[in-house]
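Quick one, probably user error.
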């Protein structure tokens, strides 16, 4: 699924803005975060047992304060933006989607709050969907980062995700009309816990401000998501590789 031009342009502008990032006020607070772009290889659609490539938009580790530093978020409580990009569902992507409604790509925007201490990041997110779905999704989890060398680190994490009625109905539901056209049983899922996730991420710090990421994520669909007649495999595996730039702005 192609990356939307507006998001690609915003990414390019943000990277360009990093060039003067070193010019910070000595002793003043610093806004620091990672921004990047990569490619994921994941399920063709939620519940699929086939895989395809899709863009991976990376915004993370936002930190503000005197102790903030590029690529090293400060310990303590934090509140930051949270977003995700979901590719669309096209009936041409898989013969098993014939008769189902197509779903446009979606952007999810919201907030992430948590507490960081000694390599641990305990967090919760809440996002609103725009485009392909207009539901509300959330995630509660924890991540632990282990330095392996001066440049290489491993982050492991566990999380539980949530989707409301709108989200669950969009990606896992089958309307009576879709049932008649596709042969699937009609299914109207309720909102609730969607999945449990275990993930690992390697980070190689190529330069002080540029890093290469590799990720492996296994998501186990639960509840009504797993019970959907559209689900062919309730264990969804995603691998990805990306490049991030650590941005910092002094105030």
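Nope, works fine. Designed sequence:
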């Amino acid at each position: 699924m192609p990356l939307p031009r507006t998001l690609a342009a915003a990414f390019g502008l943000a990277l360009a803005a990093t060039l003067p990032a070193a010019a910070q006020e000595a002793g003043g607070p610093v806004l620091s975060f990672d921004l990047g772009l990569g490619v994921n290889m994941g399920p063709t659609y939620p519940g699929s047992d086939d895989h395809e490539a899709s863009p991976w938009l990376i915004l993370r580790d936002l930190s503000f304060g005197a102790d903030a530093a590029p690529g090293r978020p400060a310990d303590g409580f934090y509140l930051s933006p949270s977003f995700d990009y979901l590719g669309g569902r096209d009936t041409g992507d898989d013969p098993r989607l014939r008769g189902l409604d197509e779903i446009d790509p979606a952007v999810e925007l919201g907030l992430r709050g948590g507490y960081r201490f000694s390599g641990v990041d305990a967090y919760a997110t809440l996002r609103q969907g725009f485009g392909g779905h207009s539901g509300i999704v959330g995630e509660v989890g924890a991540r632990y980062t282990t330095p392996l060398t001066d440049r290489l680190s491993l982050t492991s994490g566990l999380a539980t995700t949530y989707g409301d009625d709108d989200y669950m109905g969009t990606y896992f539901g089958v309307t009576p009309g879709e049932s008649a056209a596709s042969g699937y049983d009609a299914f109207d899922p309720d909102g609730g816990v969607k999945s449990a996730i275990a993930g690992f991420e390697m980070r190689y710090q190529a330069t002080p401000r540029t890093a290469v990421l590799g990720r492996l994520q296994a998501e186990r669909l639960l509840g009504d998501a797993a019970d959907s007649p559209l689900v062919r495999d309730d264990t969804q595996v995603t691998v990805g590789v990306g490049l991030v730039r650590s941005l910092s702005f002094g105030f």
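Strands lie at 30-43, 51-65, 76-86, 106-117, 120-131, 136-147, 152-163, 192-205, 210-221, 235-250.
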